Protein backbone atom coordinates (compact mmCIF):
# COMPACT_ATOMS: atom_id res chain seq x y z
CA UNK A 1 0.00 0.00 0.00
CA UNK A 2 1.51 3.31 -1.07
CA UNK A 3 1.66 5.68 1.87
CA UNK A 4 2.82 9.27 1.90
CA UNK A 5 5.60 9.74 4.43
CA UNK A 6 7.12 13.17 3.83
CA UNK A 7 7.35 16.14 1.54
CA UNK A 8 10.55 16.52 -0.44
CA UNK A 9 10.84 20.08 0.87
CA UNK A 10 10.93 18.79 4.47
CA UNK A 11 13.98 16.66 3.83
CA UNK A 12 17.52 17.82 3.51
CA UNK A 13 19.22 16.07 0.63
CA UNK A 14 21.66 13.45 1.92
CA UNK A 15 20.17 13.48 5.43
CA UNK A 16 18.48 10.52 7.09
CA UNK A 17 14.99 11.08 8.47
CA UNK A 18 13.30 8.73 10.89
CA UNK A 19 9.57 8.36 10.30
CA UNK A 20 7.25 6.73 12.83
CA UNK A 21 3.91 5.38 11.64
CA UNK A 22 2.43 3.41 14.50
CA UNK A 23 4.56 0.29 14.92
CA UNK A 24 6.35 0.85 11.64
CA UNK A 25 9.51 2.91 11.94
CA UNK A 26 11.32 3.80 8.75
CA UNK A 27 14.27 5.82 7.63
CA UNK A 28 13.85 7.90 4.49
CA UNK A 29 16.78 9.24 2.51
CA UNK A 30 16.39 11.75 -0.27
CA UNK A 31 18.89 11.05 -3.04
CA UNK A 32 17.66 13.85 -5.28
CA UNK A 33 14.38 15.60 -6.09
CA UNK A 34 13.10 12.55 -7.94
CA UNK A 35 14.54 9.66 -5.95
CA UNK A 36 14.31 8.54 -2.33
CA UNK A 37 15.27 5.40 -0.41
CA UNK A 38 13.33 3.90 2.50
CA UNK A 39 14.30 1.14 4.89
CA UNK A 40 13.69 -0.18 8.40
CA UNK A 41 15.03 2.08 11.14
CA UNK A 42 16.40 -0.80 13.19
CA UNK A 43 19.50 -2.77 12.21
CA UNK A 44 18.63 -6.45 11.76
CA UNK A 45 21.90 -7.42 13.43
CA UNK A 46 21.51 -6.11 17.01
CA UNK A 47 18.98 -3.35 16.72
CA UNK A 48 21.20 -0.34 16.16
CA UNK A 49 19.52 2.95 15.13
CA UNK A 50 20.04 3.24 11.39
CA UNK A 51 18.82 6.84 11.29
CA UNK A 52 22.18 7.62 12.89
CA UNK A 53 24.06 5.59 10.29
CA UNK A 54 25.91 6.66 7.17
CA UNK A 55 24.96 6.10 3.56
CA UNK A 56 27.56 5.54 0.91
CA UNK A 57 27.02 4.14 -2.54
CA UNK A 58 23.47 2.96 -1.70
CA UNK A 59 24.66 1.15 1.40
CA UNK A 60 23.70 1.97 4.96
CA UNK A 61 26.33 1.52 7.67
CA UNK A 62 25.03 0.82 11.17
CA UNK A 63 26.58 3.09 13.84
CA UNK A 64 26.75 0.30 16.40
CA UNK A 65 28.87 -2.41 14.81
CA UNK A 66 29.62 -1.15 11.32
CA UNK A 67 27.49 -3.68 9.47
CA UNK A 68 26.58 -2.50 5.97
CA UNK A 69 23.41 -3.36 4.06
CA UNK A 70 22.53 -2.82 0.42
CA UNK A 71 19.65 -0.43 0.04
CA UNK A 72 18.78 -2.07 -3.26
CA UNK A 73 17.92 -5.48 -1.82
CA UNK A 74 18.54 -5.33 1.95
CA UNK A 75 21.30 -7.93 1.93
CA UNK A 76 24.29 -7.54 4.25
CA UNK A 77 27.31 -6.51 2.20
CA UNK A 78 29.83 -6.02 4.98
CA UNK A 79 30.17 -7.93 8.25
CA UNK A 80 33.15 -6.51 10.13
CA UNK A 81 33.56 -9.45 12.52
CA UNK A 82 35.23 -12.77 11.78
CA UNK A 83 34.15 -16.33 12.55
CA UNK A 84 35.60 -16.08 16.06
CA UNK A 85 32.44 -14.23 17.06
CA UNK A 86 30.29 -17.24 16.23
CA UNK A 87 26.54 -16.85 16.03
CA UNK A 88 26.79 -13.36 17.47
CA UNK A 89 27.85 -12.07 14.04
CA UNK A 90 24.80 -13.52 12.27
CA UNK A 91 22.34 -11.05 10.87
CA UNK A 92 19.08 -11.00 8.98
CA UNK A 93 18.40 -8.83 5.95
CA UNK A 94 17.36 -5.23 6.18
CA UNK A 95 13.79 -4.40 5.20
CA UNK A 96 13.84 -2.03 2.22
CA UNK A 97 10.80 -0.44 0.63
CA UNK A 98 9.86 0.77 -2.82
CA UNK A 99 9.47 4.51 -3.06
CA UNK A 100 8.16 7.04 -5.53
CA UNK A 101 7.94 10.79 -5.55
CA UNK A 102 4.90 12.46 -6.92
CA UNK A 103 4.27 16.21 -6.89
CA UNK A 104 6.85 16.75 -4.19
CA UNK A 105 5.52 14.02 -1.91
CA UNK A 106 7.47 10.87 -1.04
CA UNK A 107 5.41 7.67 -1.06
CA UNK A 108 6.57 4.36 0.39
CA UNK A 109 5.07 0.99 -0.46
CA UNK A 110 4.43 -0.49 2.97
CA UNK B 1 -13.92 -17.22 32.65
CA UNK B 2 -12.04 -16.30 29.49
CA UNK B 3 -8.27 -16.28 29.51
CA UNK B 4 -8.24 -12.58 28.79
CA UNK B 5 -10.23 -11.73 31.90
CA UNK B 6 -7.73 -13.68 34.04
CA UNK B 7 -4.87 -11.47 32.90
CA UNK B 8 -4.20 -8.76 35.44
CA UNK B 9 -4.28 -5.11 34.56
CA UNK B 10 -0.70 -3.84 34.34
CA UNK B 11 -0.88 -0.11 34.66
CA UNK B 12 2.91 0.21 34.61
CA UNK B 13 2.90 -1.11 31.04
CA UNK B 14 -0.36 0.47 29.93
CA UNK B 15 0.78 4.01 30.72
CA UNK B 16 4.05 3.79 28.86
CA UNK B 17 2.36 2.19 25.87
CA UNK B 18 -0.11 5.06 25.80
CA UNK B 19 2.81 7.46 26.03
CA UNK B 20 4.12 5.99 22.78
CA UNK B 21 6.62 3.34 23.85
CA UNK B 22 6.78 0.22 21.70
CA UNK B 23 7.09 -2.09 24.71
CA UNK B 24 8.06 -5.20 22.77
CA UNK B 25 10.83 -3.35 20.95
CA UNK B 26 12.03 -1.81 24.20
CA UNK B 27 12.13 -5.17 25.96
CA UNK B 28 14.15 -6.64 23.09
CA UNK B 29 16.63 -3.79 23.36
CA UNK B 30 16.88 -4.16 27.13
CA UNK B 31 17.57 -7.88 26.90
CA UNK B 32 20.32 -7.27 24.36
CA UNK B 33 21.70 -4.53 26.58
CA UNK B 34 21.81 -6.59 29.75
CA UNK B 35 23.28 -9.49 27.78
CA UNK B 36 26.10 -7.16 26.74
CA UNK B 37 26.67 -6.16 30.37
CA UNK B 38 26.90 -9.75 31.57
CA UNK B 39 29.14 -10.95 28.74
CA UNK B 40 31.35 -7.90 29.26
CA UNK B 41 31.61 -8.76 32.94
CA UNK B 42 32.74 -12.25 31.97
CA UNK B 43 35.30 -11.08 29.42
CA UNK B 44 36.59 -8.33 31.71
CA UNK B 45 37.38 -11.03 34.25
CA UNK B 46 39.75 -12.58 31.72
CA UNK B 47 41.16 -9.24 30.63
CA UNK B 48 41.84 -8.21 34.21
CA UNK B 49 43.66 -11.48 34.90
CA UNK B 50 45.98 -10.68 32.00
CA UNK B 51 46.89 -7.18 33.12
CA UNK B 52 50.26 -8.37 34.33
CA UNK B 53 53.66 -6.88 35.07
CA UNK B 54 54.50 -3.54 36.63
CA UNK B 55 52.33 -1.55 34.25
CA UNK B 56 49.45 -3.97 34.37
CA UNK B 57 49.34 -4.01 38.15
CA UNK B 58 48.21 -0.39 38.26
CA UNK B 59 45.51 -1.00 35.67
CA UNK B 60 43.97 -4.01 37.40
CA UNK B 61 42.08 -1.91 39.90
CA UNK B 62 40.51 0.26 37.23
CA UNK B 63 39.55 -2.72 35.11
CA UNK B 64 38.10 -4.30 38.24
CA UNK B 65 35.90 -1.27 38.94
CA UNK B 66 34.54 -1.34 35.40
CA UNK B 67 34.07 -5.11 35.58
CA UNK B 68 32.07 -5.03 38.81
CA UNK B 69 29.98 -2.08 37.71
CA UNK B 70 29.07 -3.77 34.44
CA UNK B 71 27.73 -6.69 36.46
CA UNK B 72 25.76 -4.21 38.55
CA UNK B 73 24.27 -2.80 35.36
CA UNK B 74 23.07 -6.28 34.50
CA UNK B 75 21.55 -6.60 37.96
CA UNK B 76 20.01 -3.15 37.80
CA UNK B 77 18.18 -3.44 34.48
CA UNK B 78 17.23 -7.13 34.43
CA UNK B 79 14.26 -6.75 36.82
CA UNK B 80 12.90 -4.07 34.47
CA UNK B 81 12.77 -6.64 31.66
CA UNK B 82 10.44 -8.77 33.77
CA UNK B 83 8.37 -5.81 34.94
CA UNK B 84 7.70 -5.06 31.30
CA UNK B 85 6.57 -8.63 30.67
CA UNK B 86 9.77 -9.80 29.04
CA UNK B 87 12.23 -12.46 30.10
CA UNK B 88 15.79 -13.53 29.63
CA UNK B 89 16.45 -16.49 27.30
CA UNK B 90 16.57 -19.69 29.30
CA UNK B 91 19.75 -20.77 27.50
CA UNK B 92 22.80 -18.66 28.30
CA UNK B 93 24.28 -19.43 24.87
CA UNK B 94 21.31 -17.78 23.21
CA UNK B 95 21.64 -14.90 25.67
CA UNK B 96 25.31 -14.34 24.84
CA UNK B 97 24.68 -14.48 21.10
CA UNK B 98 22.07 -11.75 21.27
CA UNK B 99 24.25 -9.31 23.25
CA UNK B 100 24.21 -5.77 21.90
CA UNK B 101 28.00 -5.60 22.02
CA UNK B 102 30.65 -7.94 20.60
CA UNK B 103 32.67 -10.29 22.75
CA UNK B 104 35.54 -8.44 24.44
CA UNK B 105 38.04 -11.15 23.55
CA UNK B 106 41.52 -11.24 25.04
CA UNK B 107 43.79 -9.79 22.33
CA UNK B 108 46.63 -11.91 20.96
CA UNK B 109 49.20 -9.34 22.10
CA UNK B 110 47.81 -9.15 25.61
CA UNK B 111 51.27 -8.73 27.18
CA UNK B 112 51.08 -5.15 25.99
CA UNK B 113 48.55 -3.63 28.44
CA UNK B 114 47.57 -1.04 25.84
CA UNK B 115 46.09 -3.76 23.68
CA UNK B 116 43.83 -4.78 26.59
CA UNK B 117 42.92 -1.15 27.25
CA UNK B 118 41.79 -0.82 23.64
CA UNK B 119 39.41 -3.75 24.08
CA UNK B 120 38.08 -2.27 27.33
CA UNK B 121 37.58 1.12 25.69
CA UNK B 122 35.77 -0.35 22.73
CA UNK B 123 33.39 -2.28 25.00
CA UNK B 124 32.55 0.84 27.00
CA UNK B 125 31.90 2.83 23.85
CA UNK B 126 29.53 0.18 22.57
CA UNK B 127 27.65 0.23 25.89
CA UNK B 128 27.31 4.02 25.72
CA UNK B 129 25.67 3.75 22.30
CA UNK B 130 23.26 1.06 23.49
CA UNK B 131 22.10 2.76 26.69
CA UNK B 132 21.91 6.16 25.01
CA UNK B 133 19.53 4.59 22.52
CA UNK B 134 17.40 3.26 25.38
CA UNK B 135 17.38 6.76 26.89
CA UNK B 136 16.24 8.17 23.55
CA UNK B 137 13.44 5.61 23.33
CA UNK B 138 12.15 6.31 26.81
CA UNK B 139 12.75 9.96 27.61
CA UNK B 140 9.50 11.66 28.54
CA UNK B 141 7.58 8.40 28.12
CA UNK B 142 8.89 5.74 30.50
CA UNK B 143 10.48 7.40 33.53
CA UNK B 144 11.50 4.18 35.25
CA UNK B 145 13.41 2.67 32.34
CA UNK B 146 14.86 6.08 31.53
CA UNK B 147 16.09 6.51 35.09
CA UNK B 148 17.83 3.13 35.09
CA UNK B 149 19.33 3.58 31.62
CA UNK B 150 20.68 7.04 32.36
CA UNK B 151 22.31 5.76 35.54
CA UNK B 152 24.01 3.04 33.54
CA UNK B 153 25.10 5.29 30.70
CA UNK B 154 26.52 7.79 33.20
CA UNK B 155 28.85 5.15 34.59
CA UNK B 156 29.73 3.82 31.15
CA UNK B 157 30.78 7.34 30.13
CA UNK B 158 33.00 7.47 33.21
CA UNK B 159 34.54 4.14 32.27
CA UNK B 160 35.21 5.39 28.77
CA UNK B 161 36.89 8.47 30.22
CA UNK B 162 39.15 6.33 32.43
CA UNK B 163 40.33 4.22 29.52
CA UNK B 164 40.76 7.22 27.24
CA UNK B 165 42.97 8.78 29.89
CA UNK B 166 45.05 5.66 30.24
CA UNK B 167 45.42 5.17 26.50
CA UNK B 168 45.73 8.72 25.27
CA UNK B 169 46.52 10.87 28.30
CA UNK B 170 43.23 12.71 27.94
CA UNK B 171 42.22 13.84 31.45
CA UNK B 172 39.15 11.94 32.56
CA UNK B 173 37.98 14.38 35.20
CA UNK B 174 37.43 11.51 37.59
CA UNK B 175 39.23 10.14 40.57
CA UNK B 176 39.24 6.54 41.74
CA UNK B 177 36.21 4.85 43.23
CA UNK B 178 36.01 4.70 47.03
CA UNK B 179 35.96 0.90 46.91
CA UNK B 180 36.01 -1.70 44.12
CA UNK B 181 32.78 -1.72 42.15
CA UNK B 182 31.28 1.18 44.08
CA UNK B 183 28.76 1.89 41.30
CA UNK B 184 27.89 5.39 42.52
CA UNK B 185 24.87 5.53 40.20
CA UNK B 186 24.00 1.87 39.78
CA UNK B 187 24.30 0.51 43.33
CA UNK B 188 20.91 -0.57 44.60
Tell me the fraction of residues in β-strands of chain A, as a range.
Answer: over 45%
Largest sheet geometry of chain B? none
What would you call the structural class of chain A?
Answer: mainly beta
Proportion in helices of chain B? 55-70%
Please state the structural category of chain B. Answer: mainly alpha
Number of strands of chain B: 0
Return the string of H and E elements of chain B.
HHHHHHH
User: How many DSSP helices of chain A?
Assistant: 0
Low-confidence stretches of chain A: none
Overall mean pLDDT of chain A? 94
Largest sheet of chain A: 4 strands, antiparallel
Oligomer: heterodimer
Gap between N and C termini of chain B: 40 Å
Distance between the first and last residues' Cα of chain A: 5 Å
Biggest sheet, spatial arrangement of strands of chain A:
2-3-4-9
- Could you state the order of secondary-structure elements of chain A as H and E? EEEEEEEEEEE
Strand content of chain B: under 5%
Structural write-up:
The complex is a heterodimer of chains A (110) and B (188). Chain A is 0% helix and 45% strand. Chain A has 110 residues and is mostly beta strands. In chain A, strands 2-3-4-9 form a 4-stranded antiparallel sheet, with no helix packed on it. A 4-stranded antiparallel sheet of chain A has the order 5-6-7-8, with no helix packed on it. Chain A has a 3-stranded antiparallel sheet with strand order 1-11-10, with no helix packed on it. In chain B, α3 runs antiparallel to α6, α4 runs antiparallel to α7 and α6 packs antiparallel against α7. The longest helix of chain B is centred in the middle third of the chain and has 31 residues. Chain B has 188 residues and is mostly helical. The radius of gyration of chain B is 18 Å and the shape is elongated. The model of chain B has no long low-confidence stretch (mean pLDDT 94). At the A-B interface, loops of A face α3 and α6 of B.
Amino acid sequence: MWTSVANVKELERGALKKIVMGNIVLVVYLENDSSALAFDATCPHKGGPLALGEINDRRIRCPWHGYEFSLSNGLPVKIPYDQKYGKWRNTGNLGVYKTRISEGVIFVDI
Amino acid sequence: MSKKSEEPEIVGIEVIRKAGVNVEQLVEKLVKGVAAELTTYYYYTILRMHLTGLEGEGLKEIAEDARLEDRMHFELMTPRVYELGGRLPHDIREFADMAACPDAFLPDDWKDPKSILKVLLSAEQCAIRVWSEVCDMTIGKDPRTYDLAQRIVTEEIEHEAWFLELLHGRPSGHFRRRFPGEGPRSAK
